[in-house]
Amino acid sequence: MKPEYEKLAAELAEAAGKFYRLRYQMSNGGNLSVRIPGRSLMMVKGTDVAFDEVCSRTLVITDFDGNIVEGDIKPSKEALLHGAIYRAVPWANAVMHCHSPYATAWAANHDLLTFATHHSEMKLGGYVPVFDTHSYAVPKEYFPEILKLFEERPEAKAFLLRAHGQVTLGKDMREAAYLAEQVEETAQIAALR
Ligand SMILES: [Zn+2]
């Protein structure tokens, strides 16, 4: 990987490692990515890579259709959704997707995340819907419905996927990761009320 990408790779490795330790993403599911500044490219986790294995060797640079530009590993199946988000949402430079337990449990039988604190309501833009995409990786036909959320609600930052997990968007990976922690904390508090 080019030296100019090493800093971004380190940011992804730090966020993924933290989520693995927090048990927000176990095994080799989940995905995370960042936009390559000024290019129609992204750095994304390889397929079959666990969050505690994310490093420059297990990340790959692709275009927004998931075609490899640099790297030796196939991108995650969820890369297509990340690319569609970067195309449609110009302010988003990072996407975190994990199968964190409370958020996923909440999505099983609710259509919206309930804000248990004023803080989470403010941070998450007041609206986190659940999409039911009937698959382990979001199929393309559901992309328009998901992208409409960010068109209609510019303050939206996150959504849940029924029987799957959560997705957050940030201006950088630090923000996307903190928002995912916020989603998980909010779902946990909501579940305990
Ligand atoms: Zn997933």
Keywords:
alpha+beta; L-fuculose-1-phosphate Aldolase; globular; 193 residues
* Element-level helix/strand string: HEEEEHEHHEHEEH
Proportion in helices: 25-40%
Question: Which stretches are poorly predicted, pLDDT < 50 over at least 5 residues?
Answer: none
Return the CATH architecture.
3-Layer(aba) Sandwich
Question: How many DSSP helices?
Answer: 6
Radius of gyration: 15 Å
List cofactors, ions and other ligands: zinc ion
Give structural notes.
This protein is of the alpha+beta class. The protein has helices at residues 6-21, 79-88, 101-108, 118-123, 143-152, 173-192; strands spanning 31-35, 41-45, 59-63, 68-70, 94-98, 130-131, 158-161, 165-170. An 8-stranded mixed sheet has the order 4-3-2-1-5-8-7-6, sandwiched between helices. α2 packs parallel to α5 (143-152) and α3 crosses α6 (173-192). The longest helix is centred in the last third of the chain and has 20 residues, at 173-192. It is globular and about 50 Å long. It binds zinc ion.
